[in-house]
Amino acid sequence: MRVLFSAVVGYGHVLPMVPLARALTDAGHEVAYATDPAFHEPIVSLGFEAFAAGMNHRDVLARLAEANPDFWSMPGDDRMRIGFREMFARIRLRPMLADLDRLLPTWRPQLLIHDTGELAGAIAADTAGIAHAEHSFGIRRPADVLEASIAERESVARERGLEDPGINGNRGETYLDICPPSLQEAGGVDGPNVVPVRPAADAQEADAPLPAWADRLGALPCVYVTLGTVSNHALHVFRAVLRRCAVAISHAGSGAMLGAAAAGVPVLAVPQAADQFLNARSMADAGMALRLMPDELSPDAIRLALRRLLDERSFRERADAIGAEIQAMPTPSSIVPRLVELAS
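RE: above sequence
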């Protein structure tokens, strides 16, 4: 079976799909990615064929700023809603759809798996008569975030005489959900087509030894600090180090959130953009994190929050409990037969 993964933006959307892509490859299937033209090298370095599709993220950000000059001064929830609509629906959808329309008849996959932010893949697959599924990169989007984006995609689907496949499985499309229940937003979609998939590293990576420099850190609590994954290539090293840490300070990106949860590490969330405000709120509500909004950041505020996370055991206990939820989720390899059935 040939499987095409379609994704946008870069590491935060591509990497969550890699465990499933590798599980499919290990099962003997052929896998390729269609993604931003400038993101080919990282895809190839992961061992997959890459096709250019859609727009580069830098160009998307330029168009976002042109259409919404006050975007970065908006409240966090407005940034998430408008950013999803503008970047993924209004700006990216049609260019990606045009490229997928050209690619699918030539590469001829039997199944297309698109990430939650890649809104063209399902329409292109329906046009070509190919089975498709959505792969999450974190928490399901709230209804108010999706409303305008769904309306935009409905219009494109109607032009082709198609029904819009929805987002997050809300209209029956198979939805591969990598978010554990305790971090999921209330009122999300459930049903037979919502398939949980473990986001954690496989056993080999989870047991990776610590790098030599970690032994020199001493006995004081170790705090892991990250603001993203742009330079994060050696994932096994980061996962091994995270297990050694008492607290993680992060921008609350979906990958950082799920990585900390899988390792049972409490988080100080300092969200900056996109879904990070949603993630920070969910982690705090679940009891594994404290959050500081952009206008609350100061050295004293960070120091006080960090001290609470280190001293109050409840944060570690909740993080451990969510980590156990993740370990109980089905592995990527276990859902491969279901995807084969879907494609057939």
